[in-house]
Specification:
The complex is a heterodimer.
Chain A: H1 2-32, H2 39-55, H3 60-83, H4 91-113, H5 137-159, H6 161-171, H7 173-178, H8 183-209, H9 216-230, H10 235-255, H11 259-262, H12 264-278
Helix pairs in contact in A: 1-5, 1-8, 1-9, 1-10, 2-3, 2-4, 2-8, 2-9, 3-8, 5-6, 5-8, 6-8, 9-10, 9-12
Chain B: H1 14-20, H2 23-43, H3 46-69, H4 79-96, H5 101-123, H6 129-147, H7 152-155, E1 161-162, H8 176-200, H9 202-212, H10 214-219, H11 224-250, E2 252-253, H12 260-273, H13 280-298, H14 302-317, H15 321-340
């Protein structure tokens, strides 16, 4: 029983990261109807920026803040110079552009910081939380930071004019434009926020999976799985999906011999295919109907 | 205006090329390319011959991706997985039951066709990006599956499988590299001819109709689900045969050679060669083999960045790839000639 509880909590901790990635993916999906395959590499790049600042003896939270702000700006810049010009291009061109961004960021990481595995510090420490063996302080920190971010985002989207404008731009760009919302900039802002959320996810998971250019490939796949499971059209659903995927991953790893531990990415593959077959809209999404 | 009509420069089908160039000139060009390809090993060093063999193999894999991507409009990022499955099928058959290498090609082809067909069945419901996502997951998961410890006896686990290089049949004055070159060339020519006929047939037109407007295609009586799964299977078959050839030529398979980055390479080759172009695949193959080599000489992390930049450049500047560039040049030349007459 204690093992089960421990694994569920550890799953929730990883799930928090998947939830953030899922949320980041869904934010861009809502704005431009595309999956950002480079989301993981953007997050890795941000984590490397923070690592570099820490290596230069800056305090952790300063590095954290700089990385988040740099990612926010970087996300907007990527949208403006890369995806804005091709937003009417065929789906193929856009897909290739995402893969190109993936490839560029991945090898830029390798070029600047090389491919050796680096440790990444955690501000929370790694002791057991309150002396209990169920969960470590870093895991608790991962969950805590995620919950705080989700709360802030909820308040932003529900309570502020800008949040309302962003929701309007995503839900109905034409009408939003008619009432004076600058839809293009709302999309750019969505990219910036998505990139910043990804940066937080990257910096929180880096102490667990260790920092290297390919560290986010698996995490991103789980983020996608969470988004698909919860529903690509529902940010709240995507977050829930991310947590569920984290728990499933950990429980499968503990209780299914061989399979769970060695074939973690296959679990994601099976989950994605199963959800898309049984319930393509996800648990909390709505069906998208298009006029022919 | 003496400019060619707009549709003449658009990247639609190889049939267009035939319409622009007179058939005789086209056959002459093909014959010339084949003649050069046959004569090359006589003058080139063994290493160059080996590299050119790999170019053909990558070209074949890219052709497989192109059948799906370019001609049927299904976005797949998982062809490294089919390439890997083909390679492992060949390697296991040669390693465990001593099957002669040439028999592994049909076996790999059939295995990949079946896997592709089965994966294509659910993929029918996964339109557009969702298919890209599912195949991305397949590509990411395959290396782990190949390392799976209960299968270690079969797959060799992390170590992979080392193979023996096949000799040229007795009586032929060829070294193994040259022999494999000609073997690959023969397979490539047959598969290129099959692909060309497929694309120019009723089936090919159905594939392209589904790509251009699935609903209209269905309304015209095309069984879209059947064609889509069959195309998925055929595409996997091509890439799987390429994988088997790759295993034979490189004489080694290991899980990490078939990561997602291989899929990116194929995609780059596809985009460079030209979407929906059959000869363009070989240009893509050349690019995928030589550009990383040159880039690695300058710096280790550079190949990916160059890949990415070139992909972006092609999207922004040259959306139809090398094949499109060739077609435009040809159309211009033809227009210039008719004007002079």
């Amino acid at each position: 029983m204690e093992l089960l509880l421990q694994q569920v909590l550890a799953g929730l901790a990883n799930g928090a990261i998947y939830a953030l990635m899922a949320l980041a993916v869904v934010m861009i999906y809502q704005a431009i109807d595309h999956l950002n395959f480079a989301q993981g590499e953007m997050a890795t790049f941000s984590a490397f920026i923070a690592w570099q600042l820490i290596a230069w003896d800056q305090p952790y939270w300063l590095a954290f803040a700089v990385a988040v702000i740099a990612s926010f700006v970087g996300g907007i810049v990527i949208e403006r110079i890369l995806f804005r010009p091709i937003h009417n291009a065929p789906i193929l061109s856009q897909l290739v552009a995402f893969i190109a961004l993936f490839s560029i960021l991945n090898s830029t990481d390798g070029e600047i910081w090389n491919f050796t595995i680096k440790t990444f510090p955690t501000p929370f420490g790694r002791e057991p939380l309150f002396g209990s063996r169920l969960i470590s302080t870093h895991e608790a920190g991962m969950i805590g930071v995620t919950v705080v971010i989700l709360g802030l985002l909820y308040l932003f989207f529900r309570g502020s004019r800008l949040g309302l404008a962003m929701r309007a731009a995503a839900a109905n760009p034409d009408s939003a434009r008619l009432v004076g919302i600058r839809v293009g900039w709302m999309i750019a802002l969505g990219w910036g926020m998505s990139s910043a959320i990804g940066a937080v996810a990257g910096m929180l998971i880096a102490p667990v999976v260790y920092l290297e250019p390919n560290m986010m490939l698996g995490v991103l796949l789980y983020g996608f799985t969470g988004a698909v499971l919860g529903g690509m059209t529902s940010p709240g659903g995507a977050v829930a999906g991310g947590f569920i995927v984290g728990v499933i991953e950990n429980l499968a790893g503990t209780f299914i011999p061989y399979f769970g531990r060695e074939l973690k990415l296959t679990i994601a593959l099976v989950l994605i295919t199963a959800v898309l077959l049984v319930r393509p809209t996800g648990l909390f999404g709505r069906a998208v109907v298009s006029r022919v | 205006m003496t400019m060619p009509p707009r549709e003449a420069v658009e990247p639609l089908a190889t049939a267009r090329l035939a319409a622009i160039a007179r058939p005789n000139a086209r056959y002459l060009a093909i014959a010339a390319v084949i003649a050069i390809a046959v004569l090359l090993p006589v003058v080139a060093t063994n290493f160059v011959v080996f590299q050119l063999t790999l170019v053909m193999i990558y070209g074949l894999a890219i052709l497989g991706l192109n059948l799906l991507f370019g001609f049927n409009g299904q976005f797949a990022l998982g062809h490294s997985a089919f390439y890997g499955i083909g390679a492992y099928t060949a390697a296991i058959l040669m390693d465990k039951i001593d099957l002669p290498y040439y028999w592994t090609l049909p076996c790999s082809g059939v295995v990949c066709f079946v896997v592709g067909f089965l994966f294509g069945l659910p993929a029918l419901r996964l339109q557009g990006l969702y298919l890209a996502l599912a195949t991305f997951a397949l590509a990411a998961a395959l290396p782990q599956i190949l390392k799976f410890s209960p299968l270690e006896d079969l797959t060799g686990g992390v170590q992979g499988i080392v193979l023996i290089k096949p000799e040229a049949p007795a009586g032929l004055p060829l070294n193994p590299d040259q022999w494999l070159y000609y073997f690959t060339l023969a397979v490539l020519l047959v598969l290129l001819a099959v692909a060309t006929n497929l694309v120019n047939s009723r089936t090919g037109r159905a594939m392209m109709a589904i790509r251009d407007h699935p609903i209209a295609a269905a309304a015209m009586g095309i069984n879209t689900s059947l064609y889509k799964t069959l195309t998925f299977g055929t595409s996997a078959l091509y890439t799987g045969i390429a994988g088997a050839l790759g295993a034979i030529v490189v004489q080694f398979v290991a899980p990490d050679s078939f990561s997602f980055f291989l899929s990116i390479s194929f995609l780059v080759g596809l985009v460079i060669g030209g979407v929906a172009s059959i000869p363009g695949c070989l240009v893509g193959g050349l690019f995928v083999l030589y550009v990383p080599n040159i880039a690695e000489r300058i710096s280790t992390g550079l190949a990916g960045a160059i890949y990415g930049c070139i992909m972006l450049l092609v999207i922004f500047v040259m959306p139809s790839g090398a094949a499109g560039l060739g077609r435009v040049a040809l159309a211009r030349a033809m227009a210039w000639r008719t004007r002079r007459r």
